[in-house]
Amino acid sequence: MRRKRLINLTGFTLIVILILGSAGTIWLTHARAMGLIHPLRHRAENTPADVGIETWEEVRFASTDGIELAAWFVPPATDGNGATIIFLHGFGSNRGELLEQAEMLTRRGYGALLPDMRNHGDSGGTLTTLGFSEVDDVRASVDYLLSRPEVNAERIGLVGLSMGAATALRATARIPEIRAVVAEAAYTSIEDNIADGVQAFTGLPAFPFAPLIIWFCQNESGVSMQSIRPIDDLSAIAPRPILFIHGERDGLINVHNSERLYEAASEPKELYLIADAAHGNYLDHEPEEFERRLVAFFEMNVPVIESPQTES
Length: 312
Description:
Blueprint: H1 2-37, E1 57-62, E2 68-74, E3 84-88, H2 99-106, E4 111-115, H3 134-146, E5 156-161, H4 163-174, E6 178-184, H5 190-202, H6 206-221, E7 242-247, H7 256-264, E8 269-274, H8 287-301, H9 308-311
Parallel strand pairs: 3-4, 3-5, 5-6, 6-7, 7-8
Antiparallel strand pairs: 1-2, 2-4
Helix pairs in contact: 1-6, 3-4, 5-6
């Protein structure tokens, strides 16, 4: 009798542990998914003037699905050819994130457009889709530039960081007006990186946590996370040039993402790895080389002033 009671108690304890473990897994994965779809908003604390850009405008325009986007527009120099670059910030950030990079190019006569993507900064929207619907924000940004007489429709480039980089790759594949793209700390796919993130940040196995996070993300957003695969969009970008940039010590999006993207991309392409950089802090490590690479890429592929060779 005592042995039977012990067996029953052990079985009951195991069932309770299983139920609590399952409930804890569901709670943790649901919370993580909601944090991805509904990130905390952080509005820009600086403006273009804070990095030395003297002429700029606060503008607003609607994304192709009706969401109002807030942005800064820096007109291109009047003595140039109207070349203009769009800058896309990363997840949970805002249009101020890439201001220093924008200044590097506007100082040389380029125009710039820095939008807050949907559900970020001062823009509208309640859902973040990690590079899916954000493509509509890029389409709206391009359309806005096409409405500006100062901008040359044949000279539009794109820079993105992290989620902005994934969005930039997906958008370039779908928007022919984009002539060249820089992808900084891009991910190959959402699925792979949620799985990598679970293992890296929790020490837990990817299964069952990653599939549950993905399921909750899809259920909340109505977007198939499996369809967010920038690596599958690269063939549609060629022959337009791509510059991949990544920090080799990136603990959020592993550098192997950019290495795989570079291998999968067609020419023309470049890969610039920064040895000591983490996620996006490139200017803390190689500011001069970073600027040289960024400027050279656009001067080669979206020149602000035509060279005699280009004119011929």
